[in-house]
Write a structure and sequence with these properties.
Strand order of the largest sheet: 1-2
Structural class: mainly alpha
Number of helices: 6
Number of domains: 1
Number of strands: 2
CATH class: Mainly Alpha
Helix content: 40-55%
Radius of gyration: 24 Å
Largest sheet: 2 strands, antiparallel
């Protein structure tokens, strides 16, 4: 029979006592289990890539003097206005910081509430933007006011 030295015994006790905490920390780590916010960002990026990137570009800076950048206070501002823009589009010339952007934004009435919430959450938290997430309930509320 082998005798365990005090150092090995203490190490064994430490491993037994700390393993549940280590497993729990690993289980909740974002690389192991994504948060709902992260999933919204990932889904929003897909919608953005499919529908928005052509005009607003991969970096969100738009096409100079044609399509506006998706940065700054307009993007960080009122969620209801942003939701309305995504659903109804913008037919008139836009101006941002003294620059006119003549290209109209097409309406996207076929996007569901989740897709709109996700793409706006992605835009509001990409390209240097930092803003609160857009919830599906925000989109439902805005959509009901538009109709």
């Amino acid at each position: 029979m082998r005798i365990i030295t005090p150092v090995r015994f203490l190490f064994l006790i430490f491993c037994i006592l700390s393993s549940p905490a280590l497993l729990h920390a690993q289980e909740n780590h974002c690389a192991v289990k994504k948060s709902p916010y992260r999933l919204s960002m990932d889904s929003g990026k897909k919608v953005y890539t499919l529908l928005c990137v052509t005009c607003h570009q991969a970096d969100g800076l738009g096409i100079p003097k044609l399509n506006p950048p998706l940065t700054g206070n307009r993007i960080l501002g009122d969620k209801q206005t942003q939701i309305g823009i995504v659903i109804r589009g913008v037919a008139t010339q836009q101006e941002k910081e003294g620059v006119k952007y003549p290209k109209a934004m097409p309406p996207n009435p076929d996007l569901n509430d989740r897709e709109i919430a996700d793409v706006l959450t992605y835009i509001r938290n990409s390209f240097g933007n930092k803003a609160s997430a857009v919830k599906v309930s925000d989109v439902k509320s805005a959509r009901s006011k538009l109709n």
